[in-house]
Amino acid sequence: MSSNYVQNVALVGAGGNQGKYIAEELVKGGKHKVTAITRAESNGVLPAGVVPQIVDYNDPASLVEGLRGQDVLIITMSVMAPPETHQKLIDAAKAAGVKFLLPNEWGYDHERDLKFAKENLIGERNLKRREDIDAAGLPWIAVAGGFWYEFSLGGGEYRYGFDIANREYTRINNGDIKLSTSTWEQVARGTVALLNLKIYPDNAVNKESTISNYFGKSVCIESFNISQNEMFESLKRVTGTTDADWKIKTEDSGERYARAIKMMQEGSRIGYGLGMYTRAFFPDGAASMPNTVNSVFNLPKEDLDECTKGAIKFEETFKGY
Predict the structure, then answer these.
(1) Which candidate in 54, 166, 214, 263 could, as Cys together with 268 as Cys, close a disulfide (CB 3.0–4.6 Å)?
(2) In the CATH scheme, what is the homologous superfamily, with its name and number, of domain 8-146+183-220?
(3) Residue spans per domain, the chain
(4) Same fold? 8-146+183-220, 148-181+223-288+298-316
(5) Predicted structure pTM score
(6) Going by CATH, does the domain composed of 148-181+223-288+298-316 fall within 3.90.25.10?
(7) Quick one: CA dihedral 60, 66, 71, 73, positive or negative?
């Protein structure tokens, strides 16, 4: 008889930004065997306690064998990964008997606002991936943490509007629009809390929360619901600076977004990122998620200034895009 708990977890991208934190949190919990699905030519460093499984993405049989016996497949791939890779993983997961998937999203709960999903440039792609999983007859759960805080605050002006090294702040509109944002650690904690639940209720009258309650939905996780101006106040506290130490300018969100789309149409990768982030700061506040599971999963309240220090550390080693 199979267990009603997740025991075996396959993770694509276990050495990447988000994936390594999920892998580490799974290993730390001690309840799961964690397998990293990886290519032979990969030079990524896997977290301790993670078992590598070498696969060939051009050989369907290799992928199926690599996923056999896994309860869940978690996909955390770079945006630069070949677009067909996600479908290959879906097909292999179906053939291997994987019970459910966490697809490569890690953004916002796109089903809540389809206009936002389309205009933030990644939502339609993610909704299509959900359709592909549905077509394969597999359950899925989308983990939505908003934009990653360290990555977005420390990744350059075109993300959250800050060039930390040069002390420049581009305030979008009045800088007061709030959005949901999460650290890599918080997303990992929420993901593991989800996987620690029973998969299905023990019986029809059992009302306890289970993984199956979330099938076909987004599980929304949050570190902070925060505006640019609040991020700026944290940056000033952490760096010991004042407004006078920063070059501050203001840009209209609509004009910034239009500029981003034009850049993107001209082939600029920065334009894509600029548009994606700028849409989150539109006056409609669509990137502020009201339905987080933080209290349900007993996730900790994080220290904003400590996380801002993490963003500064990320900025010091960031090599672009």
Answers:
(1) 263
(2) NAD(P)-binding Rossmann-like Domain (3.40.50.720)
(3) 8-146+183-220, 148-181+223-288+298-316
(4) no
(5) 0.96
(6) yes
(7) negative
Structure tokens at 261: 């789309």
Residue 163 structure tokens: 């060039």
